[in-house]
Design goal:
It is built from 20 helices and two strands. By secondary structure, it is mostly helical.
C-alpha cells in the first residue's frame, strides 16, 4: 500500500513527460538502418573506381612522377605550375603507383573523408550534451559524405578524378575535420593539441588550395565576430585563440604559396591583374549567382536536408521537455548563410582569371564551399524538425517524412551512379585496348602515335571534338615516351 502512490506518481510523470531513455531506445535502430543505405552507395561507388583511367591533368602528372619521383613533382608545382607544395605531395602519393594509384584513389580518399567527417560529427553532437542513439554520428557523416561526393553535378570530377579531388574535394574536408579537436578540448593537453592542429592544418591548406583557404578565413573571421553573443564566457577566450592560431597558419601557408615562382608564373600567364576590375567582379557575381541557382535546384541536396530533419527528430526525442528556441538561433543561421555567400563569391573571383565564364561550368571549383552548403542544409533540416515539434506536432511525422525523402534520394543516386559506372567501364575497356596498341607501337620504334579521343564527364582530352590539339597532347606523348601523337579520328 505504501508503494501504490509512488507508482501512481511515476505513471503520471511518464504520461506528462516521456522517459528520455525509452524514447532514445525506440529510435536507437533508426540511424544505423538509414546509415546502411548511404554506406552501400559509398561502397558501390568505391567498387566502380576500378574503371578509372588517366585523364586530364593526370596525363601530365604520371610521367613526371615516374621519371623524377617526389622531388620532380614538388619542383614542378613550386617553381613552374602554381606553388602548391602540399598538392604536389598528395599527387605524388597516388601517381607513384601509376594507373593502379588512379583506381585506388577514390576508395582510399572516400574512406578518409568518411572517417574525418565522422570525427567532426561526433565532436559536434557531443557538444550538444544530449544522449543520442548509437550510430547517429556515423549516420550524419555518411549522409554528408554521400551527398557531397555523389550528389555533385559532376561526380566523376568530384570523386573519381584524383587531380580535381586533391585540389577541391579533400581540402574543405580537412578544414572541417580540424575543428573536431577544439570541440572536444576540455583539458590543457586537449587545448594544446587543438591549437597545434589549427596552425599545422591551416599552413597545409594554404599550400594546398587557395579557394578553401579563403572560405576558411571568412568562416574564422565570422566566428570571432559572433563569439561574444553565441558562446559562454568561459569558452569564448579559447575559441578566439584557436581562431587566431588557425588564421596564422592559413596566412603563413598562403604567403609561402603566393611568393613561390610557380604562383608568380601562374599569375602572369593567367593575367590575374584583371581579378578586381569592375568587369571581372560583375561577371564573377553573375557566375556565382548562376552556381547558387544550380545548387539550390539540384535534387540530391534534398538528402542533406532530409538527414537534418532526421537528426532534429532524434535530438527532440533525446530531450523532448527542453525543446525551446535558441537565444541566438537567427544570428547563427544568418552567419552561416553570410559565410557561404561571401566565401563562394570570393572563390569565384579568384578563379575567374584562369577560367573566365568557365567558372559556371567547372563544377569541381564549387566543391571548396559546397561542403559548407551541405552542412548548412543539415543544420536547417534539424532546426525545421525542432520547430515542427515546438508547434506541438508529433516528431514521428517529421521523422517519417525525412526518412521517405532520404530513401528516395538514395535510390535516385544509386541509379545515377550505376549509369556513371557503366560509362566508366566502357571507357576503361576502350582505354586499355588503345593503351596496349600504343605501347606496342612505341616498343616497335614508332615516334608518332595515333590517339583516339576517349572522353567522359567533360574531361579534357588531347584533341577537341573538332580535331585540334590541346595542351594535353605533349603530356600523352611523354607518357608513352614518343615524340608526338596524332588524332586517330582524322579530323582537322
Amino acid at each position: 500500500m505504501d508503494r501504490l502512490p509512488e507508482k501512481t506518481v511515476r505513471g503520471q510523470k511518464t504520461a506528462d513527460a516521456p522517459d528520455t531513455n525509452t524514447l532514445v531506445e525506440r529510435a536507437g535502430w533508426w540511424p544505423l538502418l538509414l546509415c546502411t543505405m548511404s554506406l552501400a552507395l559509398l561502397t558501390y561507388a568505391a567498387w566502380a573506381a576500378q574503371w578509372v583511367r588517366p585523364g586530364g591533368d593526370d596525363w601530365c602528372f604520371l610521367p613526371v612522377v615516374r621519371d623524377g619521383g617526389l622531388t620532380s613533382m614538388v619542383d614542378e608545382f613550386y617553381f613552374r605550375d602554381n606553388g602548391r607544395v602540399v598538392n604536389a605531395v598528395l599527387v605524388w602519393a597516388y601517381a607513384r603507383f601509376g594507373v593502379a594509384g588512379q583506381q585506388w584513389f577514390a576508395p582510399v580518399s572516400g574512406a578518409l573523408i568518411l572517417l574525418l567527417l565522422w570525427a567532426f560529427c561526433a565532436a559536434a553532437l557531443h557538444a550538444t550534451e544530449k544522449r543520442l542513439p548509437r550510430g547517429t554520428a556515423l549516420f550524419m557523416a555518411a549522409t554528408v559524405t554521400t551527398v557531397f561526393l555523389l550528389g555533385s553535378l559532376n561526380t566523376y570530377k568530384t570523386f573519381y578524378w584524383p587531380a580535381a579531388s586533391v585540389s577541391h574535394t579533400l581540402p574543405p574536408v580537412f578544414a572541417c575535420a580540424a575543428t573536431a579537436p577544439v570541440l572536444r578540448a576540455v583539458s590543457p593537453w586537449g587545448r594544446a593539441f587543438a591549437l597545434f592542429t589549427a596552425v599545422t592544418t591551416g599552413a597545409a591548406l594554404g599550400l594546398l588550395s587557395e579557394e578553401t583557404t579563403v572560405v576558411a578565413l571568412v568562416a574564422l573571421g565570422c566566428t570571432v565576430v559572433i563569439s561574444r553573443r553565441v558562446m559562454p564566457a568561459m569558452r569564448r577566450r579559447f575559441v578566439r585563440l584557436w581562431c587566431a592560431a588557425a588564421i596564422t597558419g592559413l596566412v603563413i601557408g598562403s604567403l609561402v604559396l603566393y611568393t613561390s615562382p610557380g604562383a608568380l608564373h601562374r599569375r602572369q600567364t593567367k593575367n590575374s591583374s584583371i581579378m578586381l576590375t569592375p568587369k571581372a567582379l560583375w561577371e564573377s557575381l553573375y557566375g556565382f549567382t548562376y552556381i547558387a541557382c544550380r545548387c539550390l535546384t539540384s535534387w540530391p541536396y534534398l538528402g542533406a536536408l532530409a538527414g537534418g530533419v532526421i537528426l532534429g527528430c532524434l535530438l527532440v526525442r533525446a530531450s523532448p521537455e527542453r525543446v525551446t528556441r535558441a537565444k541566438n538561433e537567427a544570428l547563427l543561421i544568418w552567419s552561416c548563410i553570410l559565410v557561404l555567400v561571401i566565401g563562394g563569391y570570393a572563390c569565384t573571383v579568384i578563379t575567374y582569371p584562369a577560367f573566365r565564364t568557365g567558372v559556371m561550368t567547372s563544377t569541381r571549383l564549387w566543391n571548396d564551399y559546397l561542403l559548407l552548403y551541405v552542412l548548412l542544409l543539415v543544420y536547417a533540416g534539424a532546426l525545421a524538425a525542432r520547430a515542427w515539434h515546438r508547434r506541438g506536432q508529433q516528431a514521428h511525422t517529421a521523422l517519417a517524412a525525412g526518412t521517405a525523402v532520404y530513401s528516395v534520394v538514395c535510390v535516385c543516386l544509386a541509379a545515377s551512379l550505376a549509369a556513371q559506372a557503366s560509362a566508366m567501364a566502357a571507357r576503361a575497356r576502350a582505354w586499355d585496348q588503345q593503351d596496349v596498341r600504343m605501347r606496342a607501337q612505341a616498343a616497335a620504334g614508332a615516334r608518332v602515335l595515333p590517339y583516339r579521343r576517349l572522353s567522359i564527364s567533360k574531361m579534357t582530352e588531347p584533341f577537341r571534338k573538332d580535331g585540334h590539339k590541346t595542351w594535353l597532347a605533349l603530356c600523352v606523348a611523354r607518357y608513352y615516351r614518343v615524340q608526338d601523337i596524332t588524332n586517330a579520328t582524322g579530323k582537322r
